Amino acid sequence: MGLLSEGSPLSWEETKALADHVRKHGIQQFINQFKRLKSRKRDYLYWGDEVEYMLVKFDRERKTAKLSLRASDVLHELQKAEKQNPQSHPTTWRPEYAAYMVEGTPGKPYGGLMAHFNLVEANMRLRRTEIKKCLAEDEFPLALTCFPRLGCPGFSSPDTTPTPEAGASRSLFFADEVIFQGHPRFRTLTRNIRQRRGKKVAINIPVFKDKYTPDPFVEDLTQYGDTGEGATGSKPDHIYMDCMGFGMGCSCLQVTFQACHIEEARNLYDQLTPLCPIMLALSAASPVYRGYLSDNDTRWTVIAQSVDDRTEEEMGLKPLEKDRFVINKSRYDSVDSYLSSSAYSDIELVYDKDLYKDLINGGIDDLLAKHVAHLFIRDPVSLFSEKVNQNDEVDTDHFENIQSTNWQTMRFKPPPPDSNIGWRVEFRPMEVQLTDFENAAFTTFMVLMTRVILTFGLKFIIPLTKVDENLKRSFKRDAVLEQKFYFRKDILTDCSPPEAEDAVIQCCDGGKKCNIQDQYTQLSINDIIHGKEDFPGLLPLIENYMDMVEIDVDTRCTIKQYLNLISCRAKGKLKTTARWIRDFVQSHPDYKQDSLVSESINYDLLLKCAQISEGTQSDDTLLPSTVDTKTSDEIPSAILKEQKLMCNNCP
Ligand code: GLU
Ligand code: MG
After folding, report:
1. Which of 86, 105, 151, 585 is 20 to 30 A from 289 in CA distance terms?
2. Minimal-distance CA residue to ligand 1 atom 6
3. What are the contacts of 521-525 at 24+ separation with CB within 8 A?
4. Which of 29-43, 58-72, 505-519 has the highest mean pLDDT?
5. pTM: predicted TM-score of the whole model, two decimal places
6. Nearest CA to ligand 1 atom 8
């Protein structure tokens, strides 16, 4: 989850006092990096996935499934092999927010061969095997977006007791020991977000109203020790949660792409932005929070609310006196401006005008300067005393400090100092799936989308207010089938660069003018994925692309199965993980139609999840009945020789 500087964390007051210092030097560091690296070209299409796993402990006698807080020890073991062999170890392990989470990535990024798609699932499988080696017999690694009973009494092993009067989060439900303890960043972020906001975060998610769900649904929070803040912060008919852990304790699947050069990275950032809500809805996997069925299917807004450190002034609830800006979103939220064109950036961008000037004077163009100056309206929320004074010529910690605590649907990533890594973009919205097969499928689909976007010059951009409206729709129960989404009508039309601030843009089809409003329509996800009448569809475009490139038989067979999964989910022939979990809960004999996911339901559900991820049980409402990919640990040498490296059509 971002920058892991070593050292002693400063208090919130000390951090706040140094906020301008961090911002000023962060901007300088970005300018210096930009100058050095703006002309970097000919980088290969490298890409990689990140999967966040949860450690779950099953007690078969008591029929309980709890989160095992052993990530620190497990990580220590996992990293041993990597440390011994940093150049060639096939996996990389990093801590995540919670003491029950670990994050795994491939040891090396995948490269520009089609055959690399055949490695993804095998590497994910290897990661699971590696975790399992570090676990006890009753523990299991689950790729679960949200643990259904997170924050319910007794949800962790060992048991923990929340301390509402003291500590970092002061949650009624989530003890500080559940935060990863092996690095101070996570505790510090939790404390500072609360202190900056001036009170605890208040997460409210609509409850799913079943036949016997109390109406109105209002919980008595005094039973958890609430002395008023919970009563004020919670809304009727909502599931209330009160700390960062409920959000950042959720897992996801992220994919990072390296571009050939900075312009290509900016284009990819823009074209992938409208796909974020679509992929969030397609990958929906989290319908249960703090033991209640919710009316949302995804984690997104839970995390957004869980790190919302804005003060009342910043939220526009009080006139600005101490703070500098009214800010429309949390630090974890959607993209506010495009990087390659301004015509579709119709959200009024809040940005730091002084830092913007510094960026312009440093040679950064208007759009990129606004993007960075927008990220930099935020304060640093963790700072280490050893890192306060830096050499802006070589260090980038202050830049990364603010950059890595802006958790947007997409992230634009400059090359790290002293590395051979190029300009990258990170696709961040997808929910993690139970099986390696599904996670490999979603990863592959997204990487192929980048290939198709670049090869066919596809344009997906629509006004950002419409992308935001789509994101709101994508949270909802069964959004994949029930909602329509604003989508660009003619994704193949290559529009000439629109004039900034001009609502009328030139289209290249016959040179006729068209309004931005005429460029998009509302489509179902099924239409977006499969196409209809005059809309080509993402899957047919991917198939066209696959017909153009060299692919070995095994890789083609594997990819075909991945695309079939995406197709079936979009059509509703297979359930999303969220729908599957809902149905499991609602048809469980212990379910009382009151929205409550009891300990026994949780146990049976997670056991089933573990069996499905192991492949010892299947469910053909969730997964295709025959999954038999040809994934392998290595690319056969004959294929390595045969296939040509793809360098993103570099000029
Ligand atoms: N776990 C977070 C999520 O589900 C992401 C944390 C990260 O940036 O790695 O979106
Ligand atoms: Mg992560």
Report:
1. 105
2. 1
3. 521/486, 521/487, 521/489, 522/484, 522/485, 522/486, 522/487, 523/484, 523/485, 523/487, 524/481, 524/483, 524/484, 524/485, 525/278, 525/281, 525/282, 525/479, 525/480, 525/481, 525/483, 525/485, 525/570
4. 58-72
5. 0.95
6. 1
